[in-house]
Specification:
Elements: E1 5-14, E2 24-32, E3 36-40, H1 47-54, E4 62-67, E5 70-71, H2 76-82, E6 83-86, H3 98-107, H4 113-126, H5 142-152, E7 160-164, H6 172-187, E8 191-195, H7 199-205, E9 208-213, E10 216-221, H8 223-229, H9 236-244
Helix pairs in contact: 3-4
Bound molecules: adenosine-5'-triphosphate (ATP).
InterPro entries: AAA+_ATPase, ABC_transporter-like_ATP-bd, ABC_transporter-like_CS, ABC_transporter_ATP-binding, P-loop_NTPase
Organism: Plebeiibacterium sediminum
Keywords: ATP-binding, Nodulation, Nucleotide-binding, Transport
């Protein structure tokens, strides 16, 4: 692992119980400090499985995932302080207010209540939600829930933020706020791993991409490198279709 590499996915393979095909098949890639790394692939490609291995929620059957040189299988307690995970499904309590949800999630990291309260107010302000701080999550729109879900993964100021489809089901305004916020966070030093099916967002945000399909890594490259090496393609979506094919995955 070089001094700038913070994550090394080394020949990782994962079979789910009862399945004969691997969800992730000997996948290797590395992520450098400061990257905005887009992990792309069609439905069922293995993105969430890979992210779950990085987050230590799943163990690989073979291979390893090193984060800051620590093995994700054996150093979960240390690693969880460096990483923030924002899952694809909204993981909030509907009957609690935004503030109560965030106090709950922040307390899981052992932050002092004083520090936690000031961080919550800061992030709610940055993401345009301070005026609904004490409103119940059940009254929130999809875009507001997505932004609270994002804040919940950021309360302990992780060095590596892992986002699984953070822009799903939200309007253009919410998307714009989240995109600008993530760009700022990345410029200020947070390394980000990002999965999405929205190629326009990926092109705007990511400096490095890993494309997987049917559990196998097809390529890692920057968006510009991909566009340069596929001159017949007009945009990233065309390159993605060329590399993964037009066949439906369902
Ligand atoms: N808990 C599970 N048990 C069994 N098989 C699973 C499980 N989770 C995922 N799979 C299978 O593993 C493969 C990879 O799934 P995964 O969710 O990682 O893909 P993905 O790229 O995140 O897809 P999507 O874009 O649809 O979210 C798929 O074939 C999926 O059906």
């Amino acid at each position: 692992m070089s001094s700038t590499t913070i994550l090394e996915f080394q020949s990782v393979t994962k079979y789910y119980k009862g399945k004969t095909e691997p969800a992730v098949d000997h996948v290797s890639f590395s992520i450098n400090r400061g990257d905005f790394f887009g992990l792309l692939g069609p439905n069922g490609a293995g993105k969430t499985t890979s992210i779950s291995i990085i987050s230590s929620l799943l163990k690989p059957c073979s291979g390893s995932c090193l984060i800051y040189n620590l093995d994700s299988r054996t150093h979960l307690n240390k690693i969880k302080h460096f990483i923030g995970v924002v899952p694809q499904d909204i993981a909030l309590y509907d009957s609690l207010s935004a503030n109560e949800n965030l106090i709950y999630f922040g307390s899981l990291y052992g932050l002092s209540l004083k520090k936690l309260k000031s961080t919550i107010d800061e992030l709610l302000t940055e993401l345009g939600l301070i005026h609904v701080k004490n409103k119940k999550i059940s009254t929130f729109s999809g875009g507001m829930k997505r932004r609270i879900n994002l804040i919940a993964g950021l309360l302990h100021a992780p060095k590596l933020l892992i986002l699984d489809e953070p822009m799903v089901g939200i309007d253009v305004q919410s998307k714009n706020v989240i995109r600008k916020f993530l760009q700022k966070l990345n410029i200020e030093g947070t390394t980000i791993i990002y999965t999405s099916h929205i190629m326009e967002d990926v092109q705007k945000l990511c400096n490095q991409l890993g494309i997987i399909d049917k559990g196998k890594l097809i390529t890692t490259a920057s968006p510009n490198e991909l566009l340069d090496s596929h001159k017949d393609c007009n945009n990233l979506e065309d390159v993605f279709l060329k590399l993964t094919g037009e066949k439906l995955r369902d």
